[in-house]
Design goal:
Length: about 120
Amino acid sequence: MSRGVVLVSHTKEIPEGLKRLIGEVAKDVPITTAGGLEDGGIGTSMERISQAIEENTADELLAFYDLGSAKMNLEMAIEMTDKKVTLFDTAMVESAYTACALLAADVGEEDIEQQLATLKVK
């Protein structure tokens, strides 16, 4: 079973930049992004998030987001997919980077969750 990552943000640039950064340490981890609105505005779109989930080639996904309303749209998109998606309420940049490095090293899900617990948003 393959594992990948979905990055969700209120702007197009944040997840794209993060994906580029992660590519330096985990180039083989499938990463898809959903940032901003269809018209290029600030916000999140459940449809764009659903598309990012479905376009990711992995069967199991770890999902990271930047702000609260992104979480709400991400939760709705997760309900509409057959893929296993684990949503993390953690600092987006640090968590996604750490998770991808661990996925690249083939670390198990429980160990990844334990590592990311220290980055939990309080």
